Amino acid sequence: MNLRDLLESIKLELCHLVFGIIYFVGLKSFNNYLLSNYQEDDYFKMIIENTNEVLISLLFAVIMIIIGISMIGKNLHEIKNYSLEIEDILFKMVGIVIETILIILTIVFIYNPILRGILLFISLLKVLTTA
Q: 113 preceded by cis ω (within 30°)?
């Protein structure tokens, strides 16, 4: 397998990785903004005053996770159902590891403080609607 074939086989993973890095940098900056301008446990106020940014960040996180899971499924399907050379299998396995790491990082970055605020907001709505 030459370099051109290698890049062709992992171009989706590379695009997702680059997009993921850009997203993580922006999300880290947004998280720092939220934590520096609000008290750490005042998630409700963070959500109310930054609703659009929070929802966009959450939407991108969901998209990143769905893309990652899809790519893992694609790679597993190709490993399982096609007779690939050992180097192709290794590159598919590396792609699976990279996608798994991206999914974990997405969950970690979105969890603090954005997802905590959304979960608190949902809990509050449940309490108010059942009362």
A: yes
Q: Which string of DSSP letters, residue by residue, matches 49-85?
A: HTHHHHHHHHHHHHHHHHHHHHHHHHHHHHHHHS---
Our CA angle for 96, 70, 94, nearest 5°, is 10
Residues 6+ apart with CB under 8 A from 124: 44
Tens digit of pLDDT for each residue in 60-96?
999 999 999 999 999 999 899 988 888 888 888 988 9
Give the 3-state secondary structure of residue 30.
Answer: helix
User: What pLDDT is recorded for position 26?
Assistant: 92
Asked whether the predicted pLDDT for residue 53 surpasses 70, the reply is yes
Do 57 and 110 meet the contact criterion of CB atoms below 8 Å apart?
A: yes
Would you say 70 and 32 are in contact if contact means Cβ atoms under 8 Å apart? no
CA angle 12, 15, 18 (to 5 degrees): 150
